[in-house]
Sequence to fold (119 residues):
Amino acid sequence: MKSKIVDMAEILRDADDRWLEAAFASDAVPDDGFSDGIVRRLRRRVRIRRWSLGVALIVGTLVAARPVVELATLLLRVVGQVAGSLGFEAGDALPSAAMLLWGGALFLVTVFWLRVLDS
Fold:
């Protein structure tokens, strides 16, 4: 059983509707591998972007490592002087510089891997 709307549409079809249907009723246009080429290019671009981001991250880390270590040692000296002026001894309240650097490195690696797993 057909719907009344479909029947009405079939009844109201005129010559123009039939001409348009005939004009657009054609076979698919062959692309001769065009779509596959586009998909290959897009995948290559995605790979290049991912690799370039990773390489840039590694190079940036290598460039910034020395100034970050110098800044950390300077901050540790300043914190040690402030703690010494407040009456704390160096071993009582402050963690060692190696512990701070390893903790920061562990934090950065964890954040990096969480981002990698998320994407």
